[in-house]
Write a structure and sequence with these properties.
Strands 2, 4, 5, 6, 9, 10 and 11 form a seven-stranded mixed sheet that branches. Strands 1-3-8-7 form a four-stranded antiparallel sheet, with no helix packed on it. By secondary structure, the protein is mostly beta strands. The chain is built from no helices and eleven strands. Strand 7 and strand 8 form a beta hairpin.
Length: 114
Amino acid sequence: QVHLVESGGGLVQAGGSLRLSCVASGTIFSTYAMGWYRQAPRKQRELVAVISAGGSTNYADSVKGRFTISRDNAKNTVYLQMNSLKPEDTAVYYCKAYDLFGSWGQGTQVTVSS
């Protein structure tokens, strides 16, 4: 399995930016797709962005043009750059590794104030 630790969450005003990081250990990071998900209060967890081992990306319609997922295989890290943040982006953001177990991180809180 892979152990994932997210960081970079916090409180930001609408229109601001945050960069989330997820550091992976316990696996060969470069061979797995990685994803960012989020879960708002009383809502189910939803996919935000994914990046394949080869670097191909896909985004939820709600974040297209605002968020960018990237990875640095040398650092075993996946990032989520979030720009033009909106209050509706407020959620706990989770990192997921598409390893054999589909491992999850513990999450990092993002709060966007109006």
